[in-house]
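help with this.
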Amino acid sequence: MTDRRSDCLFCKIVAGEVPADIVREGERTIAFRDINPQAPTHVLIIPRDHYPDMASAGAAGIGLLDEIAREAGEIARAEGIADSGYRMVFNTGPGAGQTIFHVHGHLLGGRGLEWPPG
């Protein structure tokens, strides 16, 4: 496991130092509404431990990305978007649009999501 970073916004949310609209909490994950939603449902799912991106979380080999995917399914059901469909997005690196370097999946749904995404 990795430590929490004092300069990381998402680590501060995990620690309760920064408020967030929490949707669901698990032992290893926390999910909250995005402050700049791009769809009617836009929830961020993050691990409580700090990993800078999806690649580092996956390389840890501890099933964390599987857990994030399970949480996404549970949240989609609770939000009423599981049957109509939803999208999970992981931006990895600045060129992909990652601005907070704590791995996080964007759960998006509640409207049509065209392809390609942009």
Notes: The first strand starts at residue 22 and ends at 25. Helices lie at 9-14, 54-59, 64-79.
